[in-house]
């Protein structure tokens, strides 16, 4: 079977790095990114808060002893049943972005602490939410006025600038809109005390330069426009940032087909591995997933084949993980390793053709 290996020390190191890069910004880990319990337990032990988007995520976080005050229910459109569940579990902080949601919260959880979510500039992000969530800046005054008439407790503002972002400029534009929203809220009578700058921070080692540049610009903006003396708490909801580089996926070659004759002019050898674009490699569907195979064992003096294709294990002919690879001549049951596989890969319990998702194993180096 294929399986994940998680280096929990890397999760810890990312936590410590954040404290250096953005020391004023509290951490609320986005559980949806990698909901595996060893990760949740470690971050809980480090005092991290949690961004939850469902009843199951809330229950998972509470099960490890996290106080409900350390959870933000960051889903602007919530089922009534799950809203009632949040109330039962005393999770008070949650997002909204429309008037209908306000009325729903008023009905089922009138003493909730609300955070208005803005529609974000997602320039520079690989995965975009588009128009699904967030109100425009032009809608804010009407929405907050309605909330005030309903006697709802709006405590802050949030945005989510897309996942795996590389643009400091878009973050600053989103922060500008947050600053304007605070001013609008003040004119209506709200004294908001929370700024949530969302997630989307890059998580692999190759993006460290981008990460440092982004956080430097964010830190400068916050110090100027949300100074420490203003009394506003600032949080973020990173997910990928913590776990992407902490997990690798090991896949086994379960099939091999040397191409002969005119079957294909594009490749000379097909390998089939026990994973799939319907499971851990689903980002290929988004046309943004590029994966580099790494071989577990050495192949000395082997001539490299430039015409290799790596297929997933389902019966779908488009289940292609790597369409063009350069690899040595490998054998059945050899292992291929894929790094940076911790973010949004281990979410499915069942996949296409009823194939189970991969298991996960964890380690912490002795010296850690």
Automatic annotation (TrEMBL):
Catalytic activity: L-ornithine + H(+) = putrescine + CO2
Cofactor(s) annotated in UniProt: pyridoxal 5'-phosphate
Broad class of enzyme this protein falls into: lyase
UniProt modified residues of type N6-(pyridoxal phosphate)lysine: 32
InterPro entries documented for this protein: Ala_racemase/Decarboxylase_C (IPR009006), De-COase2_CS (IPR022657), De-COase2_N (IPR022644), De-COase2_pyr-phos_BS (IPR022653), Orn/DAP/Arg_de-COase (IPR000183), Orn_de-COase (IPR002433), PLP-binding_barrel (IPR029066)
GO biological process, one term: putrescine biosynthetic process from arginine, via ornithine
Top-level taxon: Eukaryota
CC per GO annotation: cytoplasm
Residues in Orn/DAP/Arg decarboxylase 2 N-terminal domain copies: 9-243
Alphabetized CDD domains for the sequence: PLPDE_III_ODC (cd00622)
Pfam families associated with the record: Orn_Arg_deC_N
Alphabetical UniProt keywords: Lyase, Polyamine biosynthesis, Pyridoxal phosphate
Active site positions, chain numbering: 315 (proton donor)
Gene Ontology molecular functions: ornithine decarboxylase activity
Pathway: Amine and polyamine biosynthesis; putrescine biosynthesis via L-ornithine pathway; putrescine from L-ornithine: step 1/1
EC number: 4.1.1.17
Record function comment: Catalyzes the first and rate-limiting step of polyamine biosynthesis that converts ornithine into putrescine, which is the precursor for the polyamines, spermidine and spermine. Polyamines are essential for cell proliferation and are implicated in cellular processes, ranging from DNA replication to apoptosis.
UniProt family annotation: Belongs to the Orn/Lys/Arg decarboxylase class-II family.
Subunit-level organization: Homodimer. Only the dimer is catalytically active, as the active sites are constructed of residues from both monomers.
Name of the protein: ornithine decarboxylase
Source species of the chain: Ciona savignyi (Pacific transparent sea squirt)
